[in-house]
Amino acid sequence: MHRSFVQAGENPFAQGYAIVDPDTPERVARDAERLAGRGLIQLCTLVDAWAPEALEHDLGRRCLAAILSQPGWTVRILTKNAAVTRDFDLIEQYRDRVLVGLSVTATPSMGEVMSVLEPNASSIQARMAAMVDAKARGLRTYGMFCPLLPGIADSPDQVDLLVKFAADCGAEEMFVEPVNARGPGLRMCEAALRDHGRLAEANAVGRVRERRQWSQYVRSLISSVQQSVERHSDLARLRVLLYPSRLLPEHAEEIRTHGAGVVWLGKDASLQ
Hints:
The chain is built from 12 helices and 7 strands. It is α/β, with parallel strands linked by helices. Strand 6 (238-242), helix 12 and strand 7 (262-264) form a beta-alpha-beta unit.
């Protein structure tokens, strides 16, 4: 939504470039001081404040410091870059007001596959190591597994490994999301995987572009996650983020019946 995209004539959802506003921390500082209804801020939901381009301007640390300089704010950090560990010294000063989370989208065994889909993110191993470091420092943590792609990170064994890892890191919450079938994302993921010779994974991603296959994948994933969280943690900590518009009626009903931890989004939010 930044005006620079219009000025540059670029699509904000395209690839191959980045627009970085180095003044972002100053705007964040003004808002953190001005806003009265203080609570939880997620840094960030649409972009990564510790992405390589953002690191050139130290945006993550500067935004975090600006928010925490004002009382009443709590920050939930979300990143795919292990460089956030450079800022653990700052977080330690406000350890009660910051939750650390690195988005872990697969198990280490699938790290090579994920490097195709997340070429500018830290490796899965580095992200997990950062979470272990946060735990060792006594920082608050949460788990973020969004999305868990079919054929890559959705098997019961893979889910169990990820959930146990989050529990071992002391995760206060665990967020899980089935891949959203809307838009061009799945098609682009499938194409990238095929281009790199990962045909089995490409076929699995391609299958869920069809509604019935997607609906079955979602139902099975939620069941696997619930069972694993029940074994290793507490279902009260689970947050399965679900846009249900493409669910088949029978699968939607089954999920509603066994809906522990499911957060219904969009028009069906009232069904939570």
